[in-house]
């Protein structure tokens, strides 16, 4: 099945080569794949996956390893933001 992976700010370096718009890529994932599976697959440090959303809905950290992705989902991951 296909899912859109969107990575923001410093996380864009973890996108596969077929990225589009510089921040997203359509990826093939096996049935039953979870958010945690995708974070591991693309080598995203878990502490850098600060804000995680599927189709615009926030997914809490303790739910990510159990949240099963579905066809055409949009998985967005943002790193922690610092500033002043």
Stated plainly, the CATH topology is called Ubiquitin-like (UB roll)
Give the tally of β-strands.
Answer: 5
SSE topology string: EEHEEE
Mean pLDDT: 94
The coarse silhouette is globular
Task: Please name the fourth-level CATH homologous superfamily.
Answer: Beta-grasp domain
- CATH class categorisation: Alpha Beta
Spatial order of the strands forming the largest sheet: 2-1-5-3-4
Distance between the termini: 41 Å
The unreliable regions are none
Determine the fraction of residues in helical runs and give it as a percent range: under 10%
Beta-strand residue fraction: 25-35%
How is the biggest beta sheet arranged? 5 strands, mixed
Helix count equals: 1
The SS-based structural class is mainly beta
CATH architecture: Roll
Walk me through this protein's architecture:
The structure is a single chain. Strands 2-1-5-3-4 form a 5-stranded mixed beta sheet, with no helix packed on it. The model has no long low-confidence stretch (mean pLDDT 94). The protein starts with a strand and ends in a 6-residue tail after the last strand. The protein has one helix at residues 35-41, and strands at residues 2-7, 24-28, 51-54, 57-58, 74-78. It has a single domain, classed as Beta-grasp domain (Ubiquitin-like (UB roll), Roll), CATH 3.10.20. It has 84 residues and is mostly beta strands. Helices cover 8% and strands 26% of the residues.
